Amino acid sequence: MRTRVRHGHAVTALLLQARSIVLVRRRTGRYDDLSDAAVNVVSNGLTGVAVDPSAVPAPLREEATALAHRIVDDDHPEDSPLWPPPGEDLPVTSWIHPSLVA
Fold it and tell me: Which DSSP state fits 32?
């Protein structure tokens, strides 16, 4: 049980760190191709999974964790299906791109 709790804390910390990195990189001009709304979609999504992972389906949690790793490692986060397409203005309340919704 302790290992699972520690792992949970580590994933939460990773998701929140990735959120902070997205916001900092946007402010410093690294993600110029994304609108402010798209950046908010990513940061809100990462925060949502970190705060209440049970509210999100397991495959989405796993993809959010993979995206967080990509963001932290600066390893092509745009390759994730959760990363918004450049120039598209998504509703801030939605994380999942409409094309991913079944």
Answer: T
What are the pLDDT tens digits along the chain (102 aa)? 454 555 588 999 999 999 999 999 999 999 888 888 888 889 989 998 998 888 888 888 999 999 999 999 999 999 998 898 877 666 655 555 444 444
H and E: helices and strands count for the chain:
3, 0
CA 11 to chain CA mean position, Å: 12
Sequence-separated (6 or more) residues with CB below 8 Å from residue 40: 92
Taking the C-alpha atoms of residue 60 and residue 15, their distance in angstroms, rounded to an integer, is 13
Q: Give the C-alpha separation, 89 to 76, whole Å.
A: 20
Report the run of H or E that residue 24 belongs to, with start and end: helix 2-27
> Whose structure tokens read 């792992």?
7
Q: What are the two backbone dihedrals, phi and then psi, of residue 33, each rounded to the nearest 5 degrees?
A: -75, -10
